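Sorry to interrupt, but I need a hand with the structure work. Could you write out one complete protein record for me, on any chain you like? Just paste the record in under my message, thanks.

. . .
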Amino acid sequence: MARTHYFPGDGVHYVWDNELRPVLEIEPGDTVVYQTREVSDGQITPDSTADALATFDWDRVYPLSGR
């Protein structure tokens, strides 16, 4: 029977590494619901000013789902 899985919001990493364990394991026909993170991982918002770049953590750029 197909199931729906909800991807946890904290299931993220910042590198490609096939040794990282998957957050979910699913079966054929299952559905996964998730929200993608934007490229700065929340460091830049509509309220940010240019000053935000002084503390920008480049290691958090392009978060990947799947930690």
